[in-house]
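re: ur msg from earlier - yeah i can do the glutathione complex, just paste it... oh wait u already did. ok heres what im feeding in:
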Amino acid sequence: MITLYTYNTPNGRKISVALEEMGLPYEVKVIDITKGEQFAPDFLAIAPNNKIPAIIDTDGPDGQPISVFESGAILLYLAAKTGKGLPAEPRGRTAVHEWLMWQMAGFGPMPGQVHVFLGQPEGPARDFGLERYGKETRRLYGVLDKQLSDRAFVATEDAPSIADYAIIGWVWRHERHRVDLADFPAVAAWYARMMARPAVARGFSVALA
Ligand SMILES: N[C@@H](CCC(=O)N[C@@H](CS)C(=O)NCC(=O)O)C(=O)O
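and the outut:
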């Protein structure tokens, strides 16, 4: 059994979507990051960076329990465990790695900063932050839009991969970081396509708070 330690955030939703798509049974343990539960010693023991998501898989390698933190590492772990969401052949696998790293390094940290600066008091610091990170967020949406202009999924042909699961967690919050998907039609079409998948819908509707 897998226990998912998470909260209702983009990084948290990536993993519930992946678990649903891969058909893995799991239970949710809510870590309320608005109440500081990410700093509890038992959570820090599996997630030393004090951030959700994390998992414990009681049926890990060699049948022994394993914990995993960092959403990208969790997605790679689940793909290795199930053989789903990551092509076996090297070119396809490398493409998924590229877009997963693209998400982890940019298409998450940048819109995340927009969320932070939107919460700041009016003034030059807020204006600077929204200009800097809003511009970079829109640039990243443009990159994604180009990638999706002639394909159904971000890095694979016939079925979504862990790159799609990682990226959709953040596109799900496009309104919050002030992006109008009408400006990025290929992203909008992909988002609708992904959200129409029953497993993805379950991943977004499971209670995480
Ligand atoms: N790189 C990490 C980022 C995780 C992250 O930023 N989690 C946020 C919620 S989306 C969090 O737990 N924040 C609590 C805190 O910073 O104390 C991952 O992808 O797992």
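cool cool. The beta strands are 2-6, 26-30, 54-57, 66-69. ping me if u need the other ligands too
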